[in-house]
């Protein structure tokens, strides 16, 4: 597993006779690293390797992972991995908020709630556990199922944000508007993850 990279800026690179990667190279690096990461994890059949891959952001930091994958389209392997890691990081950092929003969305999303596989009541520690479990499924289970669970998770949170926005619209219209926008964005993320599951099953997610 890679460790935290040494910071090596453009000036340092040029001083050593190197060149900065162009857009095509950056794209190739994003797709190659995503494929290697998933391939390594799925070939290892080792719970310790899976645990280390799930905790990749803990080791490298979210900005490093974002630099690798966040610019890629949502319906690609690096794009999907970025969204899964970002989702896990949000739940890890804001478990109470995630729990509140998930609880608010359950009654509007029975099917999605069942697919996400979160026990009731959706306590903060339960959401953290499932976020880890979903990401672990990328490396040690059915990757398409992991993507579908993440998609369902997003759908429930999005419904919860819409409900909380409705409840707070009068007292805090700006906050309600922010919840509505972020909920819509998360719903779109969920749709992209579900599409990625279909692409993976068809052998077309790269």
Kindly describe this structure.
- With 206 residues, this protein is an all-alpha fold.
- The chain has one domain (11-201).
- It has helices at residues 10-15, 23-44, 47-54, 56-60, 62-69, 77-93, 95-105, 110-116, 124-140, 143-168, 173-201.
- Helix 3 packs across helix 9 (124-140) and helix 10 packs antiparallel against helix 11.
- The two termini are 21 Å apart.
- The relative contact order is 0.12.
Short description, anyone?
Helix content is 76%, strand content 0%.
Topology:
Blueprint: H1 10-15, H2 23-44, H3 47-54, H4 56-60, H5 62-69, H6 77-93, H7 95-105, H8 110-116, H9 124-140, H10 143-168, H11 173-201
Helix pairs in contact: 2-3, 3-9, 5-6, 6-7, 6-9, 7-9, 7-10, 8-10, 9-10, 10-11
Give the CA-CA distance, first to last residue.
21 Å
Q: Which structural class fits the helix and strand makeup?
A: mainly alpha
Number of distinct beta strands: 0
Count structural domains: 1
Counting DSSP H or I runs of 4 or more residues, the number of helices is 11
Order of helices and strands: HHHHHHHHHHH
The low-confidence parts are: 1-18
Fraction of helical residues: over 70%
Tell me the fraction of residues in β-strands, as a range: under 5%
**Major pleated sheet:** none
Main attributes of the structure:
single chain; 206 residues; mainly alpha; 11 helices; 76% helix; globular
